[in-house]
Amino acid sequence: MELRVTSKNVEVSDTDREYMEKKLGRLAHHLPNITESTVEITRENTKEPQDRYVVQVTLNSRGTLLRGEVRAPVLAAAIDNVADVLDRQIERFKGRRYEKGRREGERY
User: Fold this and answer.
1) DSSP sequence for 74-102
2) How far apart are CA 24 and CA 108, in angstroms?
3) Which of 45, 62, 69, 90 has the largest CB neighbor count within 10 A?
């Protein structure tokens, strides 16, 4: 899985990059045919500290795009939350594919 990280108004350190690779790498266990993942990190100067960091992740899996966006006060929390969002999306996507195959095979 290729991981591309772009940032705006924030410097991404090596430890943050390793943390992203670890958290998003776990998604490859659930959906092994992820070819590319794009991470966009933005730091906004807002009055409310709970919306400081915006993390957007787009996964490309053989033409199927899965996207998650999360806002959090700390970068690590935003990465954790977006990984959870994408994990739920992968489960739903795989469930749809499984159910679609089951319906076509059922004949009464």
Assistant:
1) SHHHHHHHHHHHHHHHHHHHHHHHHHHHH
2) 42
3) 90
Q: How many other CB atoms sit within 10 Å of the CB of residue 4? A: 10
Instruction: Work out the pLDDT band at 100, boundaries 50, 70, 90.
Output: low
Q: How far apart are CA 19 and CA 49, in angstroms?
A: 22
For tokens 């958290």, the residue is 23
pLDDT in tens, 69-84: 999 999 999 999 999 9
Strand order across the 64-72 sheet = 2-8, 36-43, 53-61, 64-72
Burial level of 20, CB count in 10 A (0-12/13-18/19+)? Answer: buried
* Token pair belonging to 76: 């690590």
pLDDT tens digits for range 26-55: 998 888 888 899 999 999 988 877 778 999
